[in-house]
Amino acid sequence: MIRFSRVNKWYGDFNVLQDINLHIKEGEVVVVCGPSGSGKSTLIRCINRLEPIQKGDIVVDGHNVNDPKTNLTMLRAEVGFVFQQFNLYPHMTVLDNITLAPIMVRGMERRDAEDLAMQLLAKVNIPDKAGHFPCQLSGGQQQRVAIARGLAMKPRIMLFDEPTSALDPEMINEVLDVMKTLAREGMTMVCVTHEMGFAREVADRIIFMDGGVLIEENTPHEFFSNPQNDRTKDFLSKIL
Ligand code: ADP
Ligand code: MG
Question: Which Pfam families does the record match to this protein (predicted)?
């Protein structure tokens, strides 16, 4: 579903991603971890071309992401992105936040888009918030709206960039629970997160990055019980 082949990216003369090779299968849940500044956000932002790359290839569900002929709107419709800072449209209701893209990009009838939005709000456990504005919701509720908004495009892949890092501790689990449900339903997911309990429970694979290099990838069991690289061991000793 996602294939990185010898991907290199530079910010100016800083080689932020170095020779990344990565292959993610349909339905796989991959957690990306590593120290701050290691290139995790950059890596996942390349998947829907929020960031361009300078060398190598990224193929997502058959689309060569950096080919100028690739239709970015359609690529991004297939790849949902959930940010640390929710990024909801503040002047729109929850319902309008969710229905905007299905109506504008997918050409869905408003009534169908609203039915879908209500189903998704039920799925993320806030069926009663459709008429609220983002500022009237808690952080955990806003992030669940952001997930519902991503799902409304019926994406084939969902990307999460530290979706719980801006939340108060008591709200983290309500967001992780929604992500766990998606994972169990077979969604292909790439999640940058420091929630190692989540990683242990639902990841098929954990990737560790440091200094723009993909240092290690393994099953959660092997990753935690038998890390291979000294940098991985050092990172785990700080966060576990
Ligand atoms: P992470 O998500 O692992 O914390 P990032 O991918 O955000 O790491 O950043 C990796 C490195 O690239 C950091 O050193 C960061 O300062 C740098 N960086 C990120 N975005 C930009 C940018 N737009 N321009 C220049 N440098 C950047
Ligand atoms: Mg980041």
Answer: ABC_tran
